[in-house]
Model the fold of this input.
Amino acid sequence: MVAVQVMANDVAVGFGGAGGYLEMNVYKPLIIYNVTHSITLMTDSCTNFRKFLVEGTKPNLKKINEYVERSLMLVTALSPVIGYDKASKIAHYAMDNDLTLKEAALKLGFVTEAEFDRVVDPKKMVKPYVAAAAA
Amino acid sequence: MTDIRKETDSLGEVDVPADKLWGAQTQRSLEHFSIGKDLIPREMITAYATLKKAAANANYAGKRLDQKRHDLIVQVCDEILAGQHQDMFPLHVWMTGSGTQFNMNVNEVISNRCCQIAGTPLGDKTPVHPNDHVNMAQSSNDSFPSAMNIAAAVNVKQRLIPAVKALRDAIATKVTEWNDVIKIGRTHMQDATPLTLGQEWSGYEGVLADDLDRIEDALKGIYRLALGGTAVGTGINSAPGFAEAAAAEIAKLTGLPFVTAPNKFTVQGAHDAQVHLALQDRQRCSTHVLWPASRLRRTPDSRERTWLLDYAGQGKPHPSRSPHDGCRPGDGQ
Done:
């Protein structure tokens, strides 16, 4: 709500800024009313957002890990090794049969377990990384 | 029945409540512009007191104002800057578009408070006249936009920027803390590839850092003051050198790099610096706070068991955090 009000204030200031007639702009009280209103709203909301939300936020590590483990999109790392089409098949097969990616990949026989574990490693996927095919 | 006294302006006599420090022009505005409940922002009272004090200093230095009147004006401005007389500024936002009546409200209050200190009757306009001495060398047309810029710059520097910096720093702490927490990234509200929680929040830190640069950039135009341009920007009735001296006084009083605007016609005919500050930067700042806020909104607190539970808890326990409603036992945020 605060952000919407600040944006609305900016619309008023914009119209006010367009209100120059001959030698003078005649929307001065409107402009400063909205500018100071926005300064106050942004100041207070940044402060409260920090104090009562950001500073106390803790990650739910169990859930975060679970989502990573269950995500079908980790298959992306396999693309450079087995090709986009096979990687897609693994994701779809896992989805359709409620399997993990690894289970689907092994079932379809596109990679070995060792190969899968080496390539599909979330730790490697958070920076520039192109998995190489097994020698 | 409230006691009244007679105040005068160039149009004649006006009844003013006896206990008020304002004069005839303020009273006329109260009656003719009694529109809504929005008052001229309180920030403008402080800004105008700073401006009037600076003008008195510049006029005293230029030998246009004697020491007695200068000292009285400065004393009253200091009282206003210390938070006194706030209820003597009752005018609404929706007045004349130049803000003239608010300028006169300030002139009248300072004049009458000087009367009180000097022991003359309210409305006497001696020893300090609202127009001849407090408003000396000024027009509403150059003083109001200058006060607007003082109000904007002072509040951005003293309040908004520290609040944005503190938020940026609090987020930066989390970025370091969560550098190794690997999570699944999401685009279009669906799973994408992994990133660390620290990487995700570093994006929020980055936009706030960029916003701080943009806000500072927008202040450059705000520091240019119209004061000295008087009615239409030419400087009629303003002594040579007053514009520069008054801007230097304002810079000294605020600790901010105010200067006299190189072109007064520009800053009286348009308020592009204010528009820039509002439209560009705070809109950005605002949407940039919306981004992390909407991200957290989609991962509500740990009691929601069916949504994106990336966070075990948000915020500290605080009395202001309240139960959702009276219907769902144990539910709250």
Summary: Chain A touches chain B through 65 residues (CB under 8 Å).
